[in-house]
Specification:
about 300 residues; Alpha-D-Glucose-1,6-Bisphosphate, Chain A, domain 4; 2 domains; 9 helices; elongated; transmembrane; transmembrane helix; Polyketide cyclase; membrane
């Protein structure tokens, strides 16, 4: 049997239309997202993919349409990563979220065709429907959710064989962070470099520098060996407008063994929906950054002890 090449697939009209149609509507979806017309929520991640699949499902050749869809998705996501429109992590997490609804819409359209429920006029309307969803439902959801930001907190703990005061002074300002990066940091999770405390008092600023940005914190509680609490007053982290950092707290608990239990709590807001899908990824990403800082702190305290 002769091997099929891309040229052979390209000769199929349904394959070509599937690629062009998918890229066209996904491109408009990205434009609407980046101009803040639609939210990173239900319309974009559920309704739009279903309608996109429905619009593709009315095309005649099922297998060719599926192949065209997958090729177009690959082209689109690679472009988003290379151009910097979206990060690698977001893209990896996004694919399993939107592909199932696309195929659900595709199956619905296939059933409509099988039972002859579609007319020529309705097919044309369905093929244009993804853009109508963005134009009509997207702004409506944006208006509904624009002030609805869920507040979340993530806490991580570590036990260190040092007294609380020593741990406190080691974490309040960190010169250089280095070492093995957790998995998500190896993709494109922001990597912290250093944190600088301008003064040791309430009201002072603590600035943490990352690859591609920084977080500016204002000290709200400064109790050596007990508590270091900060409000995030500004942050510049590329590609993450859907997360809003609110507060960072370190608590230091003295244990009877002479050790310290250090707890880091990050409070943030998120605009990503559905929450049941995104929240575990957000938690894992924040905890990986906590652990990265903790391991650096462990080395720093160990170096002091020598």
């Amino acid at each position: 049997m002769a091997r099929l090449t891309f040229k052979d697939f390209w000769r199929n009209k349904s394959f070509r239309i599937s690629i062009v149609q998918t890229l066209f509507f996904m491109g408009w979806g990205m434009v609407f997202l980046h101009y803040n017309i639609v939210e990173y929520a239900w319309v974009m991640f559920l309704v739009f993919p279903i309608i996109l699949g429905l619009s593709l499902g009315v095309l005649p050749s099922t297998s060719s349409v599926v192949k065209g869809l997958l090729v177009a998705m690959l082209i689109f996501f690679v472009f988003c990563i290379v151009s910097g429109l979206e990060g690698l992590i977001c893209t990896v997490f996004l694919i399993p979220l939107i592909l199932p609804p696309v195929f659900l819409g595709f199956i619905i359209a296939h059933l409509f065709k099988q039972y002859r429920l579609l007319s020529r006029k309705s097919e044309l309307s369905i093929r244009l429907s993804p853009l109508l969803v963005l134009l009509l439902l997207g702004p409506l959801e944006h208006f509904t959710l624009q002030n609805d930001k869920t507040v979340n907190s993530v806490s991580t703990q570590i036990i260190l064989p040092y007294p609380p005061t020593e741990v406190f002074h080691a974490i309040k300002s960190i010169d250089t962070l280095y070492g093995p990066k957790p998995f998500l940091m190896q993709l494109d999770l922001p990597v912290p470099h250093k944190c600088i405390l301008e003064r040791e008092e309430v009201g002072a600023y603590r600035i943490c520098y990352f690859e591609g940005g920084k977080i500016v914190e204002e000290i709200t509680m400064f109790e050596p060996g007990k508590l270091l609490a900060m409000d995030v007053i500004d942050y510049e982290l590329t590609g993450r407008r859907w997360l809003g950092f609110k507060e960072a707290i370190y608590t230091f608990d003295s244990l009877t063994t002479g050790q310290t239990r250090l707890t880091r709590t990050t409070t943030y807001t998120s605009e990503l929906y559905p929450r049941a899908y995104w929240k575990p990824f957000e938690k894992e990403g924040i905890q990986q950054e906590h652990h990265y800082v903790f391991e650096n702190l462990r080395r720093k305290l160990g170096d002091r002890g020598h």
